[in-house]
């Protein structure tokens, strides 16, 4: 028996949310939240087939939520529900990761048709490989272990999340806000030095024993995982 597709509706207007729940409940397995922060939390723990996102939320803009979801690696379709109809707004939404938008008021028939089209053509996200490898450096997503030059280093969860994100963007500068969104699931109220403290602990484990720092500070911006510091061995 085929299970209904899982949908997350992010909408703070109770009347609209309840109407959509009534219209979609026979076809979809629908979860509803009313804030952007709640949406980021739900997506972190549940595999959805589509996210329907209102543009005007009480805690942050739908555009920001869309951007954060994409930065966290969400690849499922995002359908924006908006009262704004300007071309520039639509372009901005698509640039920030939305797959489609629907201007309020809209018919339920059109909404369902767009949902069918999005889920029909979407490429479902593949389960991440257990091991993230950059050169001869390896991060194990299951055991939270890091290997460098054959040495196994066990990481705390936040250290692991920070290093995972830096390795996924190896060679590129990653800002502190992007790290906080990934490792702390969108939290904006961290102490100023929280990330710096975790980076220090991470360096004590993965850099200092080896004499060649993989984690570089880019002053005023953030950090970078530098693959040029990796020793590549000949495996032939």
Write structural notes for this entry.
The protein has 236 residues and is of the alpha/beta class. It has 2 domains: 5-121, Rossmann fold; 131-229, Winged helix-like DNA-binding domain superfamily/Winged helix DNA-binding domain (Arc Repressor Mutant, subunit A), CATH 1.10.10. It has 8 helices and 12 strands. Helix 6 (157-168) crosses helix 7 and helix 6 packs across helix 8. The chain starts with a strand and ends in an 11-residue tail after the last strand. The model has no long low-confidence stretch (mean pLDDT 84).
Could you give the topology of this structure?
Layout lengths: L4 E6 L3 H11 L3 E6 L2 H10 L4 E5 L7 H10 L6 E5 L4 H9 L4 E4 L4 H14 L9 E4 L2 E4 L4 E4 L2 E4 L2 H12 L4 E3 H8 L10 H13 L8 E4 L3 E4 L11
Helix pairs in contact: 2-3, 6-7, 6-8
In brief:
It contains eight helices and twelve strands. The chain has helices at 14-24, 36-45, 62-71, 87-95, 108-121, 157-168, 176-183, 194-206; strands at residues 5-10, 28-33, 50-54, 78-82, 100-103, 131-134, 137-140, 145-148, 151-154, 173-175, 215-218, 222-225.
List keywords for this structure.
Arc Repressor Mutant, subunit A, 2 domains, five-stranded parallel beta sheet, 236 residues, four-stranded antiparallel beta sheet, Rossmann fold, 8 helices, alpha/beta
């Amino acid at each position: 028996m085929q299970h209904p597709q899982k949908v997350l509706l992010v909408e703070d207007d109770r009347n609209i949310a309840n109407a959509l729940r009534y219209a979609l409940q026979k076809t979809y397995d629908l979860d509803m939240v009313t804030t952007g922060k709640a949406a980021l939390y739900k997506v972190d723990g549940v595999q959805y087939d589509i996210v329907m996102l209102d543009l005007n939320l009480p805690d942050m803009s739908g555009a920001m939520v869309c951007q954060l979801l994409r930065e966290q690696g969400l690849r499922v379709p995002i359908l924006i529900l908006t009262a704004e109809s300007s071309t520039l707004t639509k372009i901005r939404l698509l640039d920030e990761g939305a797959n489609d938008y629907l201007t309020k008021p809209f018919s339920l028939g059109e909404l369902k048709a767009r949902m069918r089209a999005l889920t029909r053509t979407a490429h479902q996200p593949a389960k991440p490989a257990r091991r993230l490898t950059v050169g001869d450096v390896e991060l194990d997503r299951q055991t939270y272990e890091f290997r460098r030059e054959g040495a196994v280093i066990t990481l705390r969860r936040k250290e692991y999340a920070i290093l995972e994100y830096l390795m996924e963007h190896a060679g590129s500068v990653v800002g502190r806000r992007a790290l906080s969104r990934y490792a702390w699931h969108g939290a904006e109220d961290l102490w100023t030095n929280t990330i710096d403290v975790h980076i220090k602990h991470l360096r004590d484990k993965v850099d200092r024993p080896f004499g060649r720092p993989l984690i570089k500070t880019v002053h005023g911006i953030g950090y970078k995982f530098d693959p040029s510091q990796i020793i590549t061995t000949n495996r032939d």
